[in-house]
Design goal:
The chain contains 16 helices and 14 strands. The chain is an alpha/beta fold. It has 3 domains: 155 residues, NAD(P)-binding Rossmann-like Domain (Rossmann fold), CATH 3.40.50; 137 residues, no CATH class; 85 residues, Type Iii Antifreeze Protein Isoform Hplc 12 (Alpha-Beta Complex). A 6-stranded parallel beta sheet has the order 3-2-1-4-5-6, sandwiched between helices. The chain has a 4-stranded mixed beta sheet with strand order 8-7-9-10. Strands 11-13 form a two-stranded antiparallel ribbon. α7 packs parallel to α11, α7 packs across α16 and α8 runs parallel beside α11. It is globular.
Length: 436
């Protein structure tokens, strides 16, 4: 709780925290909007495939001409690691690119904040291990739901509570797993023209809807906290904040969980489409268990909503502010040498599942696309089954037919074993898959 004080001291000493941003999309733009209001924080380098779009993003969020003129805009990601910066923010969303940028940052002795949770789930445990060995910070991005949830889990454990469940809310129906980019906008109450005029990417927004993004974020939380993942994937129970302690507890206690100590996502709509009362669509939560009768009595005395036993309670944060909160990660890495969430193990994986009957020779199109969606699996089960990670299910050709609803496997696709991303993933599996 002293980040601002530490930053003021750095600023007064004439040693600002310098950041290179890779990817000036929505998340990056939200971060950039805060920079002029934080003395002692500078962004001298912005990397984006479209340099003019990046400049326009800076203008849109309120940067003045002098600040823009003083900034280097480049398409070359290597400029981030080679520059005079303390922290690199990777916000591209591309897992292969993200892994490459993270490793370059670590090799250059720079802290890396990984907005790119897709890359983190594909190889985060290995990247974090490499960063620790190099004496730099590898961190999840504060403001995004995985880091916020990991923080709540850490709070609960540090105060002596047993974590029963943790996760986030989203809008979910089982039918969403089959939605493609062609049909995504009706679920957001938009027309295709309205979405296009707003610059919204249909495949990216479809990954939020079809369950893939939820699976990726829960895997990141599991890998950062050591929580387990459901054996057969996420349940997405409909649940409002008042019912969290009742619904999100083990089945033996009357809840929906297979056991205590798991990640899970709650839906903001009932299965018949009705809205959930006091939903958690934009927020995160942790359900905790009192370790003794005295603590349970304190739950009641201080107004916590509990289940009928009084032993299970919930804490939640109703909103997350994405890139507006990213400075917490940046400053924590630069000033405290601490991550805001980091993978310490390989507990959860996200695998590609066919959205329809797929035929050999078809090309997979990855997260949020027309061919596959991402399902959360225990890491050991994924590796044992030879399941193809969703992060590698992009622009690869099927060599076998795959039925709708079936998991795509490494043996079903033509994979280049010499591809650098594939090699990093295989190295991560070898190092971590059997350590659970």
């Amino acid at each position: 709780m002293n980040l601002f004080h530490l930053l003021k001291a750095r600023h007064a000493a004439g040693k600002p925290v310098r950041v290179a941003l890779i990817g000036a999309g929505k998340f990056g733009s939200m971060f950039l909007s805060q920079v002029p209001h934080v003395p002692g924080l500078e962004v001298p380098v912005i990397v984006d495939l479209d340099r003019e779009r990046a400049r326009e993003a800076c203008r849109t969020v309120g940067w003045d001409a002098a600040r823009i003129e003083a900034t280097t805009f480049t398409q070359d990601g290597s400029k981030a690691a080679s520059g005079n910066v303390d922290v690199i923010v990777e916000a591209t969303g591309n897992p292969a690119v993200g892994i490459r940028h993270a490793r370059a940052a670590i090799a250059a002795g720079k802290h890396i904040v990984m907005v790119n949770v897709e890359a983190d789930v594909l190889a985060g445990p290995l990247l974090a291990q490499e960063a620790r060995k190099a004496g730099v910070v590898y961190s999840l991005a504060y403001g995004d739901q995985p880091a916020l949830t990991a923080e709540m889990v850490d709070w609960a454990r540090a105060t002596g509570f047993r974590v029963v469940a943790a996760g986030k809310g989203t809008k979910y129906l089982p039918s969403y797993h089959d939605v493609t980019p062609d049909g995504v906008w009706q679920h957001y109450g938009l027309t295709a023209a309205e979405a296009q005029s707003a610059g919204m990417n249909p495949q990216m927004f479809n990954s939020f809807l079809d369950g893939t993004k939820s699976a990726i974020e829960m895997a990141a939380i599991a890998n950062a906290t050591g929580l387990d993942v459901p054996a057969d994937g996420l349940l997405f129970p409909a649940c409002g904040v008042d019912d969290l302690p009742h619904v999100m507890r083990p089945r033996e206690m009357g809840g929906v969980l297979e056991k205590s100590g798991v990640v899970e996502v709650v839906s903001s709509i009932e299965r018949d489409g009705r809205p959930v009362f006091r939903d958690l669509r934009w927020g995160v939560y942790v359900v905790l268990e009192a370790p003794n009768d005295y603590a349970a009595d304190c739950f009641r005395q201080y107004g916590l909503r509990t289940d009928a036993t009084g032993r299970y309670a919930a804490m939640y944060k109703p909103y997350h502010l994405i890139g507006l909160e990213l400075n917490i990660s940046v400053l924590s890495a630069a000033l405290r040498n601490e991550p805001t969430g980091q993978a310490f193990g390989f507990r959860g994986d996200v695998v590609a599942v066919a959205k329809r009957d797929l035929r050999a020779s078809e090309m997979l199109d990855g997260e949020g696309g027309y061919t596959v969606w991402g399902k959360l699996m225990p890491a050991q089960a994924s590796v044992t089954a030879g399941a193809l990670p969703i992060g590698l299910a992009h622009r690869v050709k099927l060599t076998s037919d795959v039925a709708r609803g079936a998991v795509v496997r490494w043996n079903d696709v033509a994979i280049d074993a010499n591809d650098e991303t594939v090699k990093v993933r295989r190295a991560m599996e070898a190092a971590f898959a059997m350590q659970q």
